[in-house]
Amino acid sequence: MDPIERAATVRYTDAAGLPDALRGADALFVYDFLSRAVPDAWHAADRLRWLHIASAGVDPVLFPELRDSDVVLTNSRGVFDSAIAEYVLGVVIAFAKDFAGSLRLQQRSTWRHRETERVAGTSALVVGTGPIGRAIATLLRAVGMRVAGAGRRARDGDPDFGTVVSSDELSRHLPDFDVVVAVAPLTEQTKGLFDAEAFAAMRPGARFVNVGRGELVVTGDLVSALRSGQLSGAALDVFEQEPLPQDSPLWTMENVLLSAHMSGDVVGWRNALVEVFADNFARWRDGGPLRNVVDKRLGYVPSTA
């Protein structure tokens, strides 16, 4: 932040002090990307022209007043792509090779020979065709998986996915894949996208990975699909309620891999988030075009941006 402090008056604040800090401010950097403080403090934004959030998802700050205002919204797209793709590849391999089962046997000092699965030749549907989804597709293809995407518009010949199916027809395509990866942004259209109907449509024994937003999934329906055997496993990095409540059945299910909303948080990620803001600040100060401008009607940065 040093270069920014030399060029502007910077006020650091927590959620409680945000209204006072916002008064007279031209720009707001929401570094705590999980904070829900901005809507309550919006009445004090008397001069704001630009809001930047330190995440790829913008749902914590995309409230009606901001959407209807002239304030430009940018995000930190590009920081997490490779790291999240590596996470997804890791859990796909972990399930196929039953690493969790091996660890449980090791902890009991039990020698038990088993057969595991090949990853090559299986199929994955990546629901969300932004930069993170594209990075996931690239790595899954590299290990021999057949990959397709699901997005707003169906098309063929996509450079990363080959085929992209329409999210509006998701249930029709879900039975064709062994692994379904959720990485879509959270919008009114995607909230609760993976519910009982979607899980019932999946191939029996399919696996589900969520690295998008917890609210994409109806948690109770996911638990039921795992208990019934409709799904053979799930890897979850995000949840409807975070931290995950201690009484959630997901904690103790042997066919579930959990992590604490950290799939993209590799060493250096915090500095990288500030660097994205610093680069955009220099552009903004000089009157240049900003990176990662969010279409506030869509809720994400369009692929053409």
UniProtKB/TrEMBL annotation:
Under the heading InterPro entries, the entry gives: D-isomer_2_OHA_DH_cat_dom, D-isomer_DH_CS, D-isomer_DH_NAD-bd, NAD(P)-bd_dom_sf
Q: Sorted alphabetically, which Gene3D superfamilies does this protein's record hold?
A: NAD(P)-binding Rossmann-like Domain
Task: Tell whether NAD is among the UniProt keywords.
Answer: yes
The residue ranges of the D-isomer specific 2-hydroxyacid dehydrogenase catalytic domain are: 18-294
Task: Identify the residues that the record assigns to the D-isomer specific 2-hydroxyacid dehydrogenase NAD-binding domain, covering every copy.
Answer: 90-263
Please report a single Pfam family linked to this protein. 2-Hacid_dh
List the keywords (alphabetical): NAD, Oxidoreductase
Q: Name one GO molecular function term.
A: NAD binding
Domain of life the protein comes from: Bacteria
By sequence similarity, the record places it as follows: Belongs to the D-isomer specific 2-hydroxyacid dehydrogenase family.
Protein name in UniProt = Hydroxyacid dehydrogenase
